[in-house]
Design goal:
alpha/beta, 14 helices, disordered N terminus, F-box domain-containing protein, F-box_dom
């Protein structure tokens, strides 16, 4: 892998870079890719900490090689894993469960104890004791998105603490209505555990319908954003009764919430880099980066 290296220049405390407004810098960093963040962190000492934080706070992986490299990086520098708040698997290139046992997933989750958002696109085909233990340890988790509701996916819910946002989709070719009915008890048990905290729910109608039939009097009063995919007409009345705060504007929520995702840098294989001190010159790529940084520095110099 080719590592991007930059020349580190000494700067005095009077440099404008040391006077970046705290409320402006995060907005500039949001415009940068993972590789640009790693590069910028080496141009000045004052930028190293905010760039490193932005680089490791939101992580989205799109290859198994990237996962292995990230695990090695965080195992060598555990403090970086403490920064991570969101970990997502690419929905266009799912890869996490290509190995017989989810060893790498277990290792990476252990290194992110303060994780608040977890998104897995791959169909979960095995639940190991280690995976259950590491999921139970995610006490700060608030958002859970599972992209392929296999029976094993439903089974892992028993290991996860109640979350505020839950997205549970079903894309597996081998999934059938009988499978959904066989596993509704696990989903129902988890949903009932989340009644006091759940505020956003996205779920397939095929998964929710048996829960509504089994627990016709159950309610989730705090759910205000709700999307139910392919919900049968006969189930809509039950859904409206179960989610009273969302039932009055269900159609509006369907249009507004469908593609809501957290910002996350995609860590391709060539982008997984540690924010080390640069050693050779390099110029940032992309006009947007130049325009943003130029405008920012110009404003600071005028002040």
């Amino acid at each position: 892998m080719r590592w991007t290296i930059f020349e580190r220049r000494s700067r005095s405390e009077s440099s404008p870079l040391f006077k970046l407004p705290d409320d402006l810098l995060p907005g500039v960093l949001d415009l940068l890719s993972a590789s640009d963040l790693a590069a910028l962190s080496g141009t000045a000492r004052c930028l190293r900490e905010p760039c490193t934080s932005a680089l490791y706070t939101y992580i989205r992986l799109d290859s198994y090689d990237a996962l292995r490299m990230l695990v090695c990086t965080l195992e060598s520098r555990p403090s970086l894993g403490l920064l991570t708040r969101s970990f997502a698997e690419s929905t266009s290139r799912p890869f996490l469960f290509v190995e017989p046992q989810p060893e790498m997933l277990v290792r990476i989750l252990r290194l992110m104890p303060h994780l608040r958002a977890l998104s897995l696109a791959s169909p979960i085909d095995v639940v190991t004791p280690d995976l259950g233990i590491v999921l139970q340890a995610l006490v700060d988790l608030e958002t859970l998105r599972l992209g392929d509701a296999t029976p094993e996916t439903i089974a892992i819910l028993e290991h996860i603490l109640p979350v505020r946002t839950l997205s549970l989709r079903q894309f597996s070719v081998g999934w059938s209505v009988s499978d959904a009915h066989c596993n509704y008890t696990a989903l129902a048990t988890y949903l009932l555990r989340t009644r006091d905290v759940l505020s956003t729910l996205e779920v397939d109608g095929m998964l929710l319908e048996p829960v509504m039939r089994a627990y016709p009097d159950a309610q989730w009063p705090n759910v205000r954003r709700l999307i139910v995919h392919e919900c049968a007409h006969t189930t809509r009345t039950r859904v409206s009764a179960a989610f009273p705060a969302a039932s009055s504007n269900l159609s509006e929520c369907l249009g507004r919430y469908g593609a809501c995702t957290s910002r996350a840098a995609t860590w391709a294989t060539s982008r997984i880099v540690e924010p080390k001190a640069p050693k050779s010159p390099h110029f940032f790529q992309g006009p947007l980066v130049w325009i943003s940084l130029g405008a920012l520095l110009g404003m600071l110099l005028r002040t």
